[in-house]
Amino acid sequence: MSEIAFIALGANLGDRGANLAAARAALSIVPGVRLLAASRVEETMPLGAVVQGPYLNQMVAVATTLEPHALLSRLQGIERRLGRVRTQRWGPRTIDLDIVRHGDRTLNASSLVLPHPGLPHRAFWQREVEELEHLLRNAA
């Protein structure tokens, strides 16, 4: 049985738009994942205290048969293939993929919290979720 997951994409190194496109393309070929909709891309200022350039952000809705931790593992694999190196928390990155929601699930594990704890504090994520929910309703 598939569930709808919302995945946030962000990039602030290299060709940010191309990095988002590459992440969407990589997501679309993950077994057990089907891309349903993508929000508009928007530029935001970085979070945290590290001085860095602005991000391009986007969110996608996918239908997935993967459990949350399996989906997270696939996302981290995509990040690595697209050049993400985890050296500094809140630091610059070629791509960042976060599970924002996975169906109606709640989870509080050391490696994954659902819904993502940043959702109530990131207005751009809230806009993107609203846009995706609207697109999904209209596609039904």
What is shown here, in short?
The chain has helices at residues 16-28, 68-81, 123-139; strands at residues 3-11, 33-38, 42-44, 55-64, 96-102, 107-108, 113-114. With 140 residues, it is an alpha+beta fold. It has a single domain (3-139), classed as Alpha-Beta Plaits (2-Layer Sandwich).
Number of helices: 3
Can you tell me the CATH superfamily? 7,8-Dihydro-6-hydroxymethylpterin-pyrophosphokinase HPPK
Q: Largest sheet at a glance?
A: 5 strands, antiparallel
Mean pLDDT: 93
What is the annotated CATH architecture? Answer: 2-Layer Sandwich
CATH topology: Alpha-Beta Plaits
The quaternary structure here is single chain
Low-confidence stretches: none
The span between the termini is 18 Å
Order of helices and strands: EHEEEHEEEH
